[in-house]
Design a protein that fits this description.
By secondary structure, the protein is of the alpha+beta class. Helices cover 49% and strands 17% of the residues. The protein is built from six helices and four strands; from the N terminus they run ααβαβαββαα. The chain has a two-stranded parallel ribbon with strand order 1-2. Strands 3-4 form a two-stranded antiparallel ribbon.
Length: 133
């Protein structure tokens, strides 16, 4: 069983491009590498649902692109992604559906293309125009 687990862990690290860092303590990795290791764990476990909170916050653009690529691959493999973000470009690139929350309540829930083309609520319209009250 240990060999199977080690093989799966190494395969998951390879999938996120970090097999060369196997065995290195996470505290010695960059922020982007740490996020990719976390996503490698997800890849190994194959969950039905993955909840992410601002997964690319404080990452450089190259690391953000790589994390987004991995998130999209995890979604394509069948894992449902529930993610918070204030990054509108990221929401466009990753989301299938937007759940817009205003003042702690769901204000609208709609397909991503519809949300960005014609948001239904004034709060969403203001948010998209970066005119939040």
């Amino acid at each position: 069983a240990t060999d199977v687990c080690q093989r799966r862990a190494l395969d998951s690290l390879a999938h996120v491009g970090l097999e060369h860092l196997a065995g290195r303590p996470a505290r010695l990795l960059s922020g982007g590498e740490q996020q990719r290791v976390a996503l490698a764990r997800v890849w190994a476990l194959e969950p039905e649902l993955l909840i992410l909170d601002e997964p690319t916050a404080s990452l450089d653009p190259a690391s953000s692109r790589e994390v987004e690529r991995i998130i999209n691959e995890i979604a394509a493999s069948g894992t449902r992604i529930l993610m918070t973000t204030h990054n509108l470009g990221q929401a466009r690139r990753i989301a299938e559906e937007i759940v817009f929350i205003d003042r702690g309540r769901i204000a609208e829930q709609t397909p991503v293309a519809e949300f960005f083309k014609l948001p239904r609520t004034p709060a969403a319209q203001d948010f998209l125009q970066e005119e939040m009250p």
